[in-house]
Design goal:
The chain is α/β, with parallel strands linked by helices and 215 residues long. The chain contains six helices and ten strands. The two termini are 32 Å apart. The structure holds glycinamide ribonucleotide.
Length: 215
Amino acid sequence: MKKIVVLISGNGSNLQAIIDNCNSGNINGEIACVISNKEDVYGIERAKASKIKTKIINEDAFQSRAHFDEGLFNLLLDINADLIVLAGFMKILDEKTANYFFGKIINIHPSLLPKYPGLNTHKKVIENKEKYHGVSVHYVSSQLDAGPLIAQGQIKVNKDKNTENLKERIHKVEHIIYPEVIKLICDNKIYLNLDKTVNLYTNDTKGFMHNSYEI
Ligand code: GAR
């Protein structure tokens, strides 16, 4: 069984999907700790309700960003997880952490990367009258929302006029795709090649999963 650590900054709906899939046995893994860079977020409540260990690492408690980065690095080193899952963790990892744990850290982002890294992706998609929107799961590098792609889930934008509706639909895709990728990683069916391309032991031969969803 793989040891997983999940990093969050907020609501934790993706965390909940991962917890549920671990509890049902779909993911052959156990969440050893949930780390949040913010206190009093709902994701921490979710972890506690499932009796999962929690850790708060708030930048304000450190002398500088560099000290915070060092603290997070040491915490991750200490936990020594097989897989580090960023689930709405709204901080960019420093180069040392990203490089040291490269291949072990994954992130989910609400856009079809490389389109729309950063914030407010749903708003930008609507403003730019995109036909498609989606989510991306990727190995983490020290660049914002970048690194080798593992999977993407795509939806049609349809008549979504407000970001809330689109966000809700995107969340539904996230809650399917993220547990699915984590399951495959825990089953040793996804790994990074030396040339940083992603290998998948599934029927899909495209190098990464790309599915469309009617949601
Ligand atoms: C998710 O939509 C996730 O893709 C996004 O934050 C949200 C967290 O929701 N992550 C990023 O934007 C990373 N750049 P949640 O707290 O309900 O899981």
